[in-house]
Write a structure and sequence with these properties.
By secondary structure, this protein is an alpha/beta fold. The protein has helices at residues 3-29, 34-65, 70-73, 75-88, 96-108, 113-128, 134-149, 178-191, 206-219, 232-246, 263-275, 296-309, 327-335, 356-364, and strands at residues 166-171, 196-200, 222-225, 250-253, 282-291, 313-317, 339-343, 351-353. It starts with a helix and ends with a helix.
Length: 365
């Protein structure tokens, strides 16, 4: 049942209860008569109907609000990783061969060779200090992953000088979901009371600006866009100045998707980053949007963007699909950049803050 349907049932219940009250009042005005007795019987029937409606609302409304858990959304990644680890450790005593199999399982899960080796070494030390079975080994791996992922600040930064606006710049290659991510985040921020301005800095794809305009309408945000092929930096600059004039707190700036190997386009992205701070705004976040299904190739992309524009955080999209999950660990451990948001579905609410403990528990649950 949708929230709208639940509200409809509540309205029906209220209406029925109002009729019950009216009939009961009329019944009291006509005590002792047969019509009155019939009215009272009708009132009791109506009350029972109202009770059933209220019960249905009480039973179904929580179901409407609850969505799939992160554990369910990460079903494919969990099956791949946890299944491989369980197979490797399925023996009474954990041998050298078993730990080698664990390392290979982590590598297949996109954790990366160096990071996988480090995790296994640390987990072995934990096990040798207090256990020697499968349960102990799995617990040690789980604890090591959680510790490695839980050491950073994942909040989205804003200006601390009391001035406006803050600018969040979104970068990445084509097809990772940058524009959709911006739209979902704009809706979330607007719903939370933030005055948002969107900058349609991807001037090479008319569809990108049109898509962002639809998101702006959904979130009641102002959008600044330029002509097709216009200088992306100028569009972002205009958006920042427009936000300052409006007193808006936040600018979410889209940029054209570009391959990390195209140096001229990366140089243009550096220009966008510089120009965004030439006026009234300050770039407090540069968020790299990565497709989680690209695995280690996504790590190569990230390295180039980090060198070009000082990436402050990563948004991992499509984590609910065929992604193996280990890319989360690789990004943070090998690049030192925190994953701040993850996309686990198509709905607006499916762009969520990354929680290291919840993620680790979901993979091993």
């Amino acid at each position: 049942m949708t929230p709208e349907a639940a509200v409809g049932l509540v309205v029906v219940a209220i209406a029925v209860l109002a009729v019950v009250a009216l009939l009961a009042w009329r019944s009291r005005r006509k005590q002792g008569s047969a019509p009155a007795r019939r009215t009272e019987a009708a009132a009791r029937d109506a009350a029972r109907v109202a009770d059933r409606v209220v019960d249905r609302v009480a039973e179904r409304a929580p179901t409407a609000a609850a969505g799939p858990s992160l554990r369910d959304r990460l079903g494919k990644a969990r099956a791949a990783l946890a299944g491989s680890l369980a197979s490797a450790l399925d023996r009474p005593s954990i041998s050298e061969e078993a730990w080698t199999s664990v390392t290979e399982a982590l590598i297949r899960a996109d954790v990366g060779l160096t990071t996988s080796s480090e995790i296994v070494s640390a987990a072995r030390a934990r096990v040798e200090a207090g256990g020697d079975g499968q349960v102990d080994a799995m617990a040690a791996l789980r604890a090591e992953l959680r510790d490695r992922l839980g050491r950073v600040d994942r909040s989205l930064a804003r200006r601390d000088d009391g001035a406006h606006p803050s600018v969040w710049l979104f970068v990445g290659v084509n097809g990772t979901g940058k524009t959709t991510t911006i739209g979902k985040l704009a809706k979330r921020e607007a719903d939370g009371g933030t005055d948002v301005v969107l900058a349609a800095g991807d001037t090479f794809r008319a569809a990108a600006a049109d898509q962002l305009a639809m998101w702006a309408e959904r979130s009641s945000a102002h959008i600044v866009r330029g002509a097709a092929g216009a200088d992306p930096a100028s569009v972002v600059f205009d958006a920042v100045e427009s936000a300052a004039a409006r007193g808006a707190e936040l600018v979410l700036a889209d940029t054209a998707g570009r391959f990390h190997t195209e140096q001229n386009l990366m140089a243009e992205l550096q220009k966008v980053r510089r120009v965004a701070e030439k006026g009234s705004g300050v770039v407090t976040e540069t968020l790299l949007v990565l497709d989680a299904t690209t695995g280690q190739n996504g790590l190569a992309q990230a390295r180039q963007f980090i060198e070009a524009v000082d990436v402050t955080g990563v948004v991992l999209t499509k984590l609910d699909g065929s992604a193996k999950g280990g890319i989360v660990v690789s990004v943070q451990t090998e690049l030192g950049v925190p994953v701040k948001l993850v996309g686990v579905g198509e709905a607006i609410a499916d762009l969520v803050p990354f929680d290291a403990a919840e993620f680790t528990d979901a993979l091993f649950a």
